[in-house]
Amino acid sequence: MQLDKNPSSINHQDLIKVMEILNILFVVAILLYSSYSAITYISRRRQNKSQLRDFHAKSQPTRKLSEEEHALVQPFLVSPSHPNKPAQLKDQNVYLLEGEFISHGISYGNGAKTLHDTIAGVDVLLPYDARSFIGRFTSAEVVFTDKYAIVISIEDHFNLAEGKKRLHAQQVSHQQWEYGEEGQIADMENSTLTERNILGGGGAELAKEMRQVRILSQREETNSEIIARKTPGFGIIASLLLLCAYAALIYGATNGSEMLWLAVSSIFTIVAIYLIWRPRVASKPEKVNEVEGTLNLVQIQDPANTALVHTQLFLGDKIPLQLPDSWLAHIRLAPDSVVKLALRVSDYSVLSFNKTFSVDNEVRRFPLIFWGKHLTIAIVGAGMVLFMIFVNDEIKSDITQVQSVLASNKQYQSDSASNTLKHPPTLGSMVELNTQVRCTVDDSLNQQPGEINCGKLRWGGRALAPRTVSVDAALLAFYDGSAIQSEKNHQASLMLQMRQMSLSGRYDPYVAPPSIYNITNLSALVIGIEEQCAANKSALQEACSKLKNLMGEELVVDASNEAIGWEKLLAQSIKDAASGEHIALLRESTLISLRSAARSIAEAQIHDSYKQAFLQLQQGQQGAVILNVDPGQANQIKQASLGLKTLSIENEGDAAAPALLDEIRGDWLKSWEAYGRIAQADNLQALRVKGLLVGMEQAKNGDLILELDPYRTPDNVMRAVLAVVALLLGLLLMLVHGTCWGVNIWRANKRAKAINLYYAQQASANSRF
C-alpha cells in the first residue's frame, strides 16, 4: 500500500468570496451615505433659496446703497457657482440681516468641495476678509441679487472700503515679504495686536511701536537649515514596497510560478532598500528674511467661543512665531527689547534668534537624529512575522524542507521497526519505510469505548491483547436490545393506516405507513426491568424512571386502549408470569425509545465491566513507531483492518465513513470485537511510506512519533523557499530597523540633553558678561 498525499496549499476561494461580500457591503454603505448626504444637501439648498425669497419679500430696507458702496460692490456681482455669469442687484436697498452664521456644503470624491455661507438661512457672499469678523451670531447689512445676498458691513467691524484697503495693504505686505524688500512692513488696519490685548500693554503709542516689524535683508537657507527642513519622513513608500515584496512571496508560495514571483519580490525589495538607505540629497534652498521687531504675547479669543482665550507669541503684530522648546527655556529678554530673527519666507519658521540661537549652528554642532522610518519599517516587519506564524501553519515544515535541501541530508531507509527505534532518522531527511502497521486505540471518553484511530498507525511495538470480558447475560440483553422481543403486527398496522386515511380523506404515498409491534415477552421484560432497577437503585434512578414511564404510558395491554401505569403493569406481569406471556402493542417510535432507555440502564455497568480490561489494552500500546496518515488513507486502512467492504466515497475523512464503521462507535461489545480483529497477528496492513521527516517526538510510553510529508521533495522546494524568505524578510526588518530605532531614540534623547546643556552654558556666560 503506497501512501499518497496531495499537495497542500492555501485555498483562497473562501477568502475571495468573503472579500467580495465585504467589498459589496462597503460599496453599498458608501452609496447609502452618499445618497443621504446628497439628499441633505439638496434639502438645505432649497431651504436657503426659500429663506432668501421670503426675507427679501417680507423685510423692510434700512437705507439706500451709497454711490461709493455701489462702486465697491460691483466686483462681487458674479455668481459663486457660475463665475462666468454676471449677477444684478435687485434694487439699491440695504437690509439688516441678523441670525446664526452657518457654513455648509458637500464634498466630492476627487477632494473638491462646494461650500455655502448663510446668515439666518440666507445665502451670503462675504467680500474681502469679512469672514474674519463674523461670529456665531451676526448682524450684517446686505444687498440682494436673485441668488444670494452680498454683505457690505458687519456691525462696526467691517465695511467694503476698509476691506478693500486691508486687501491692498496685505498684497503690498506680502510682496514686500516675498521679495525681502528692506524697510518696515506696511501697517495694517485693525491688526490683531492692540493696546488692549498686549499682555502688560503700555498705551496706544507703545502699542504702535510694538507693532512695527522691519526687514533687514534676504538670504538663502544654509545646508544645515535645509537638512532641518527636509526630514526623511516615516518611510511610508518604502514600507508599502516591502509589503508588495512580501505579498509577492506569499502569492508565489501558494499559487506557483515561484521564480517569477521571487524576481518580482526582489525588485520591490531592492527599490525599498534604496529608498531607505539612499544618501540624502540637498533640496533647493528657500529664501530667508532677516527681520527685527518686538516680541509680543497676544491674547486671542476663539471666534466660536468668546470665553476661550489663548496666548500667541507675535513679532510685532504681523507674524505669529513658534520657537523651539529648547530655546524658550533659555531666552532672557528685557521688557520691550527689539530682537533680530531669521524667518523662512514660506512658512515663517524661526531659523535664528538674536544670533544666540541658530538652527544652522545647532545642526552643525549636534547632527539631527531621525528614527521615524525605522519605527514604521520595524512595525511592518513584525506584522510580516506574525502573519506568517499565525496564518501559515506549515512554516515549520517549510523551514525543515529548506534546511534538508541546504544540508544535503542522505535518504533514510528501513523495513524494521526495532531498527528505526534504535537508530531513528534525522529531522529534515528524506525517509522511505516499508512497514506492517495496525491502527491505534484512542483513550476512552465519557464512558465510551476508545475510537479506533487509523490516522495514527503503529509499526512494531507490543501487540494488542484484548482479554475476554465476561458480562451478565441479562445485562447484555438490555445493552444490545435483545431483552425486548418484538414482532410486527401487520393487522394492527393496516387498521391504523386505514383509520388515518379516513381522518385525512386522502392517501399520501410519500408518507410511510405506520408500524405497530407486539412485545412478545412483556412479563419477563417488566420483571427484568424491576430487578435491574432494584439492584442499582441509586445509580440508575433517572434512567429507570424514564423507562418505567415509557412502559406504563405508551404500551397498549388491553382492549381499553388506555395507559395503565407502571405499578399496574408490574402487578399484571407478575400475575401473568405463571400462566404465560402477555402481549402488548406499541408504535415503532416507542419501541426505538424503549430500546434506547433499556440500553442506558446497562451502559454504566457495561463500562465498569470493560474498564480494567481497556486500561490494560491501552497500557499495552507502547514501544512502536507511530506514523500519521491523511484521513482518506486512514479510512481505507480502517475498513481493511476490520474486514469491512470498502465503499466508494467522494469526500475523505470521518464525516464520510461507511455506516458499518459508525455502528462500532459508542458500542462496547462491537468495539471490543473490533479491537480483537486489529490485534490479530495476520491482520497487519502493508504500508510503504516515503517523504520528508518534518516532525519527530519521543513519547513517554516509548513510542517514536514520526511526521512525514510525502509531498515535500527536493524537486518542489521552491514553495518552501518563498515561505521561508518571506519569514526572513520580516525578521530582518524587525531586527535591523527595530535596533536602529532603539539606538536612534537613545541618540535623540542624548542630543536633546546636550543641546539643553549647551544653551544653559551660553545663557550663563551671557549673564556674567
Structure description:
The protein is an alpha+beta fold. The strands form four sheets. Strands 8, 9, 10, 11, 12, 13, 14 and 15 form an eight-stranded antiparallel beta sheet that branches. Strands 2-3-4-6-5 form a five-stranded mixed β-barrel. Helix 6 (236-255) packs antiparallel against helix 7 (258-277), helix 6 packs antiparallel against helix 22 and helix 10 runs antiparallel to helix 22 (718-768). The longest helix is centred in the C-terminal third of the chain and has 51 residues, at 718-768. The N and C termini lie far apart (99 Å). Mean pLDDT is 79; it is low at 1-12, 188-206 and 645-659.
| Average predicted confidence as pLDDT | 79
Number of beta strands: 24
Specify the biggest β-sheet: 8 strands, antiparallel
Strand proportion? 15-25%
Shape: elongated
What is the oligomer described by this structure? single chain
Q: What's the arrangement of secondary structure elements?
A:
Blueprint: H1 13-58, E1 63-64, H2 67-73, E2 93-107, E3 113-119, E4 122-125, E5 137-144, E6 149-154, E7 158-159, H3 160-179, E8 183-184, H4 204-210, E9 213-220, H5 223-229, H6 236-255, H7 258-277, E10 287-302, E11 305-315, E12 319-320, H8 325-328, E13 338-344, E14 350-353, E15 357-358, H9 359-365, H10 372-391, H11 395-407, E16 412-414, H12 417-422, E17 430-441, E18 452-459, H13 473-480, E19 486-488, H14 490-504, E20 516-519, H15 522-535, H16 541-554, H17 566-579, E21 584-587, H18 588-619, E22 625-628, H19 631-641, H20 659-664, H21 668-679, E23 685-698, E24 704-709, H22 718-768
Parallel strand pairs: 4-6, 16-17, 22-24
Antiparallel strand pairs: 1-2, 2-3, 2-5, 3-4, 5-6, 6-7, 8-9, 9-10, 10-11, 10-13, 11-12, 13-14, 14-15, 17-18, 17-23, 18-22, 19-20, 20-21, 23-24
Helix pairs in contact: 5-9, 6-7, 6-10, 6-22, 10-22, 11-22, 13-18, 15-17, 16-17, 16-18
